[in-house]
Amino acid sequence: MTTATRPALPTRPGAPAGPAAERAHRRARRRRTALPYLLLAPALIAFGLFKAYPIVDSLLLSFTTGSGAATRAAGLANYRRLLDDPLFWTALGNTAQILVVQVPLMLGLALLMAVGINSVLVRWRAVWRLGVFMPAVTGLVATGVMFAFLLNTDHGAVNWLLDAVGLPTVDWLGQPFWARMSVVLVLTWHYTGYNAVIYLAGLQGIPKELYEAAMVDGAGPARRFTAITVPALRPVLLFTVVLSTIGTLQLFDEPYVLTGGGPDNASLTVSMYLYQNGFRYFDFGYASAIAYALTLLVSVLGAVQMRLMGERDK
């Protein structure tokens, strides 16, 4: 006599699943949870190898002296040496002078340029925008070499033009003051258009109704600029000020190619001094200490600027 197989009863919704179903559910949930980490793993591994590890290793290196097999612990000796190093303070002073002159000059010109391009009287805005942005895509080394020829004391085009209009020529790269001003000139030429495009994007996001209402109330161009344009651009201004400050404090390429830090260390920057100690004198511990001193300076200035220009809680 054959016994009929009893059909399985359907599982009611919400009824507890069997052990096998629960295990399958847990495995599926673990796979879903692990998938994002698997996708992020290549980027995280690359970041760890090429970013995080060098940062930590250079911090540890700043507490050592010597190189290779002769490396030994030095405690805070490199940082004490930094405080007593006159050449470091010279480099820091040069960097500060370039920063104080170059950043306001560049950002002021960029803002005026952006306002001009955004004017309703200007046609072919895309062409103007492309034109002012072109210097930013020029390589830094190529820019330095080009200005080294233009500012050459004897054969440069700039001195030729000054002489042609009856003005005295300038020893751009041979005098300490003019060497720093040459670096300022190069930086301003290279980055003004870049910041102008950022400001232009911010200007195009300001509602035109605000300007129309101000004109109805009798506000002139200067009043509209100070009462509408500048406050509306406050986040963009903060972004460009912080970014430009950080970039100038890390300045290396332009003075290295243009002046080599001379004359008499007049255009030596902190990054150039770091490079000299690390890759010319192979004093990697001291170079790492300079790098972390620069990092601290950048962090402090960035925080101060965010505090002074950023939005405060009300």
Report a brief summary of the structure.
The protein has 314 residues and is mostly helical. 70% of the residues lie in helices and 1% in strands.
Helix content percent band? 55-70%
Q: Kindly, what is the distance between the CA atoms of the first and last residues, rounded to a whole number of angstroms? A: 88 Å
Number of strands: 2
- Main sheet makeup: 2 strands, antiparallel
**Low-confidence residue ranges:** none
Mean pLDDT: 85
Question: What features would you describe in this structure?
Answer:
By secondary structure, this protein is mainly alpha-helical. The protein contains 13 helices and two strands. A two-stranded antiparallel ribbon has the order 1-2. A hairpin with a 6-residue loop joins strand 1 and strand 2. Helix 3 runs antiparallel to helix 10 and helix 4 runs antiparallel to helix 7. The longest helix is centred in the N-terminal third of the chain and has 43 residues. It is flat. The termini are far apart.
Secondary structure layout plus pairing:
Blueprint: H1 19-61, E1 64-65, E2 72-73, H2 77-83, H3 86-118, H4 125-133, H5 140-150, H6 157-164, H7 176-203, H8 208-216, H9 221-232, H10 234-249, H11 253-258, H12 270-280, H13 284-309
Keywords for this entry:
mainly alpha, two-stranded antiparallel sheet, flat, 314 residues, 2 strands
